Amino acid sequence: MLVLLAFIIIFHITSAALLFVATIDNAWWVGEGFSVDVWRVCINTTMNCTEISQSFEDYATLQAVQATMILSTILCCIAFLIFVLQLFRLKQGERFVLTSIIQLMSCLCVMIAASIYTDRRKDFHETNRIHYSPTSGGAFGYAFVLAWVAFAFTFISGMMYLILRKRK
Length: 168
Known about the structure:
168 residues, alpha+beta, Butyryl-CoA Dehydrogenase, subunit A, domain 3, 62% helix, golgi apparatus, PMP-22/EMP/MP20-like, cytoplasm, transmembrane helix
């Protein structure tokens, strides 16, 4: 049982780390000589970065991606804290339902963010190149892939909490 508990804790911390990296790192869309995330556009080097401002045509949509990624990270951290509290407070045989619900909400938020970014990628990078740089020749970066991996991890983690019962 102790090994299972250690595995669940490590899995949850890994999910949170993936969410932090995917939210913060500058690699949602990369190409030769540039990288873009949901916060800024960097040309040539990481020193030459421009914040994405309200003059960006789809700024409201990009803000939705930003907000849902931040919310998913916060919810994942809250779920971990609630799991630790429930670990010591729940009676034997009860399930970690509250932790599961919050973790699945985190899963839903990261899925929404990555789906919006996937759907609106052309609008973000091809139609707005006048405002920034010609970023239409790129591809999805590793932070974007990490967001989808974090989606899978948070989903699996949420389902584990739903199934898991507190045992001796």
